[in-house]
Specification:
eight-stranded mixed beta sheet; alpha/beta; about 25% strand; two-stranded antiparallel sheet
Length: about 300
């Protein structure tokens, strides 16, 4: 392996045509240049320069190594420039993760503001479940993630710090022809005979299980549906009801109604997760996410989210 300083010296000697001039250019002694070139030639397996009466010039082996040295040094220079820009928070890539309902309105609105404020930063957005996003953040694959404690608590990982972003009320989605569709607020106990559409239930604690226990019943049937489009389809067909976060309200199909529940604990908390040493651009996006979340709460109207 050739060290970077030796390659830089090779390029400088080739450009000046002289060990002495290269030494002056790089603030070396002439003897130090000679020793380093001799060491580089030994590593390369033979001479790299033709020694002339006045100066030196590359031989065929030297020209071959010179081409690679120029390419390596150019790549390193560009890497240094990119990293400097990245650590100043201007330019570079920012890898952002969020769970599905955060990607409906909250995250896109914040990213739109971020693009206006930092147009030179390219955002790479990915979607996933909170646990997966936290693990990717810990592995260094993400620079920021929006995660939630729904349905089974906030995931944790070494080297990842989370700060609360906002609270999000959980509503119940009913088909429009449901007997309670026109109710302003309902008690969860009134839904004790319904089938519930839930990604996970029974194998670990969930908010739904805890809420049903507080109301004094256990669901008679749980249909495991992971994706929101599937849940909405099942509700519309009258095959069950589902808890839906208010962040997803505007994406709910017209065939459904969202109704509030009396249980004040039925709400989730959203968090911004960052690595221990976050990028400046990630901190800027966290600020915009907070601003967007506050604006969203101020715009949220009281009463049923989707009246019949």
């Amino acid at each position: 392996m050739f060290d970077i300083e030796s390659l830089r010296l090779l390029v400088t000697v080739a450009g000046t045509g002289s060990f002495t001039k290269a030494a002056v250019s790089l603030n070396y002694t002439q003897s130090a240049v000679s020793r380093r070139i001799a060491s580089l030639e030994q590593e390369a397996g033979g001479p790299l320069f033709e020694r002339l009466p006045r100066g030196v010039r590359l031989n065929p082996a030297g020209r071959a190594l010179y081409r690679h040295a120029v390419d390596v040094l150019d790549r390193l220079s560009r890497a240094e420039q990119e990293l400097a820009v990245l650590h100043r928070g201007h330019g570079g890539l920012l890898h952002v993760g969020a769970f599905s309902t955060a990607n409906i309105a909250l995250v896109p609105a914040a990213l739109r503001a971020f693009r206006q404020a930092r147009p030179d930063v390219e955002v790479i957005a990915v979607e996933g479940r909170s646990g997966t996003l936290t693990a990717r953040l810990a592995d260094g694959a993400l620079d920021l993630a929006v995660v939630s404690d729904y349905p089974s608590g906030l995931p944790a990982a070494d080297g990842v710090a989370t700060t609360p972003l906002c609270e999000d009320e959980l509503l119940v989605a009913l088909p429009r022809e449901h007997r309670l569709a026109e109710a302003g607020v309902i008690d969860l106990l009134e839904l004790r005979d319904e089938a519930w559409l839930q990604e996970a239930y029974g194998d670990r604690p969930t908010m739904l299980a805890d809420a049903c226990a507080r109301a004094g019943f256990a669901p008679k049937k749980v249909v495991r549906i992971a994706e929101w489009t599937g849940k909405f389809g099942y509700v519309a067909a009258g095959l069950g009801v589902a808890l839906v976060p208010s962040l997803a309200a505007w994406a709910v199909p017209d065939e459904l109604v969202l109704v509030r529940l009396t249980d004040p604990a039925l709400r989730r908390t959203l968090y911004v997760a960052l690595p221990a040493t976050p990028l400046p651009a990630a901190l800027a996006l966290r600020g915009l996410l907070r601003t967007t979340a506050v604006a969203g709460r101020e715009l949220q109207a009281p009463g049923p989210a989707r009246p019949a």
